[in-house]
Amino acid sequence: MEDYKDQFITILAGYEREMKWFLSTNPGLPSRFPIQIHFPDYDAQALFQIAKQAAASRQYRLSTDAELKLRRHIKHALTEGAGSEPFSNARWVRNMIERAVRQHAVRLFDVQSPQRDDLLTLQAVDFV
């Protein structure tokens, strides 16, 4: 790598604690990665906006009750952790939207002649 140091770039990304551990596993690693950038976690409002954007990108909207339930889930995840899953911040929120979309599809499977609004709106019950 020394011969190509001006032509080669490596980017490592991960959670702060795990990256510190990784860099400590070999005394030569910290000097090989002298630039380290820490990105702070998103706050509850930013995570909620990410969730709304993820839903909108799939052409869904959230009912008022769904928004309230989602905000409670986010607040709980930030204060208590995300349960059995490691809390991965924005990825956790996107996964939550994907689960809600699947739950929504299952819920509407037996609905006779659903209206357009039914098809496009995630309800609180979809956020399990």
Chart the SSEs and their pairings.
Layout lengths: L15 H9 L4 H4 L11 H14 L3 E2 L1 H17 L9 H19 L7 H5 E2 L6
Parallel strand pairs: 1-2
Helix pairs in contact: 3-4, 3-5
InterPro entries: AAA_lid_6, CbxX/CfxQ, CbxX/CfxQ_RuBisCO_ESX, P-loop_NTPase
Keywords: ATP-binding, Nucleotide-binding
Protein name: CbbX AAA lid domain-containing protein
How far the N terminus sits from the C terminus, by CA atoms, comes to 49 Å
Low-confidence stretches: none
CATH hierarchy, class of the largest domain: Mainly Alpha
Architecture per CATH nomenclature, i.e. the level-2 architecture of the largest domain: Orthogonal Bundle
Shape: elongated
Number of strands: 2
Order of helices and strands: HHHEHHHE
Structural class label: mainly alpha
Strand content: under 5%
Q: Provide the domain count.
A: 2
Count of individual helical segments: 6
Strand order of the largest sheet: 1-2
Mean pLDDT: 89
Largest sheet: 2 strands, parallel
Rg over CA atoms, rounded to whole Å, is 20 Å
Helix content: 40-55%
Question: Could you describe the 3D structure shown?
Answer:
- The structure is a single chain.
- The protein is built from 6 helices and 2 strands.
- It is elongated, with a radius of gyration of 20 Å.
- The chain folds into 2 domains: 2-32, no CATH class; 44-126, Helicase, Ruva Protein, domain 3, CATH 1.10.8.60.
- It is mainly alpha-helical and 128 residues long.
- 53% of the residues lie in helices and 3% in strands.
- Helix 3 packs across helix 4 (64-80) and helix 3 packs across helix 5.
- The protein has helices at residues 16-24, 29-32, 44-57, 64-80, 90-108, 116-120, and strands at residues 61-62, 121-122.
- It has a two-stranded parallel sheet.
